Amino acid sequence: MTIEMLWAQDDPTEVLRDRFGFANAEAVGDWATSTVERHWGLRVGSPERVVISDSNALAWLRSGDERLLLKWSVAPDRFDRLAFAATVTASLGALGLPVSTPVPTLADEVQVTSDRVSMGLQRVIEGSHLNVEDPDQVRAAGAMLARLHDALHEHPLRNSPSEFLSVPAPLTEQIAGWVSSNPSTLSPDARDVLGRMLKQASANLPSVQIVQGDYRAANILCVGSAVVGVLDFEELRLDHRIVELARSAVMLGTLFRDWGPVSASVRQQFLDGYQTVQALTDAERQWWPVLVLWYSLALVPPGDDPMGWGQAAIDVLDEQTAR
After folding, report:
1. Strand, coil or helix: what is 309?
2. How far apart are CA 106 and CA 108, in angstroms?
3. Boundary of a domain, candidates 124, 154, 188
4. Structural domain range at position 217
5. Are residues 85 and 144 in the same domain?
6. Would you call 112 helix, strand, or coil by DSSP?
7. What is the sign, positive or negative, of the torsion defined by CA atoms of 223, 3, 100, 103?
8. Which helix (H) or strand (E) holds 292?
9. Are 96 and 152 contained in the same domain?
10. The CATH number of the domain where 247 resides is what?
């Protein structure tokens, strides 16, 4: 069994012990196999791999010829969100969308909390992470996001947890607040251009709805030119469709480490794919360049910039000043 960190550079065996309470790999293996049998009635072998991300962990398991993924969290403040995300994902799966549908427990639960741990079981989807150098995959990813938005628009909000499904502040207010915080990476030219664009943007956006929250290459699996899996709905929230579309376009190529920007052509391919399913409204078309510029500027890191986010933001700014 391999144990590794998804993002951080910490020692995974120390994190496993200090954060999750397992003395060693054997202990987490025993827990995972007994947990799956107790709650799901499935006999599985010891995990092939365990990956840790913050207070969450994932274990790849095998039951006969079937590969399964056990995901659990030891962060109680996220338990309600995880349960709601599992419910939403199950509803999307029931509609035939390619999501990692939770496997119901023996008690017909899609997310279970036991011994201060919230956990869910999924079937592993075979595929490769979205390749932003493949235009067909990028367009397919855009079309899939529009299909997800259509389905999520119909998901009932009644009795949904309000702490993470609160209505966001108006976009103009959000961006103006970011500008007024005086980010060290925001140049005077960029401040002026963004300010002018904000004044021209329409206030008549469609209403907010549930959105996926983390739609990028790390959570999109493809086979050939088809999207076969959309993973991780744990960051879902209320927002405008165009906000997620623009944010995803800017961050589309990000995987687990060494996040890098994508080109203008990739963003356009993604937008084109989206519009094969759902055309933008006039107001959304006005907001698209504003949001692409804002997210491009916001992702520029202070100090070292080995992945080139600063140059990417300059390129987006140049596109707007040339119009």
Report:
1. helix
2. 5
3. 124
4. 129-321
5. no
6. strand
7. positive
8. helix 282-298
9. no
10. 3.90.1200.10
Q: What is the pLDDT along the chain (323 residues), one digit of tens a residue?
A: 899 888 778 898 899 899 999 999 999 999 999 999 999 999 999 999 999 989 999 999 999 999 999 999 999 999 999 999 999 999 999 999 999 999 999 999 999 999 999 999 999 999 999 999 999 999 999 999 999 999 999 887 766 666 668 899 999 999 999 999 999 999 999 999 999 999 998 888 999 999 999 999 999 999 999 999 999 999 999 999 999 999 999 999 998 776 789 999 999 999 999 999 999 999 999 999 999 999 999 999 999 999 999 999 999 999 988 77
- For residue 169, give both structure tokens: 């502040």
Q: Which pair of structure tokens corresponds to residue 271?
A: 């937008």
Find all residues with CB under 8 Å of 268, minimum gap 6, and list them: none
Calpha distance 128→229 (Å, rounded): 9
Q: Would you say the pTM of this structure is higher than 0.90?
A: yes
In the numeric block, the tokens 């997620």 are attached to 244
- Distances, alpha carbon 110 to alpha carbons 76, 80, 107, 159, 184, in Å: 17, 12, 9, 17, 44
Residue indicated by tokens 């916001």: 298
Rg of the chain in Å (alpha carbons): 21
Q: Are residues 139 and 105 in the same domain?
A: no
Q: How far apart are CA 80 and CA 282, in angstroms?
A: 36
How many Å apart are CA 296 and CA 190, to the nearest integer?
A: 11
Are 87 and 176 found together in one domain? no
**Environment class of residue 43 by beta-carbon count within 10 Å: exposed (0-12), middle (13-18) or buried (19+)?**
exposed
Residues 6+ apart with CB under 8 A from 77: none
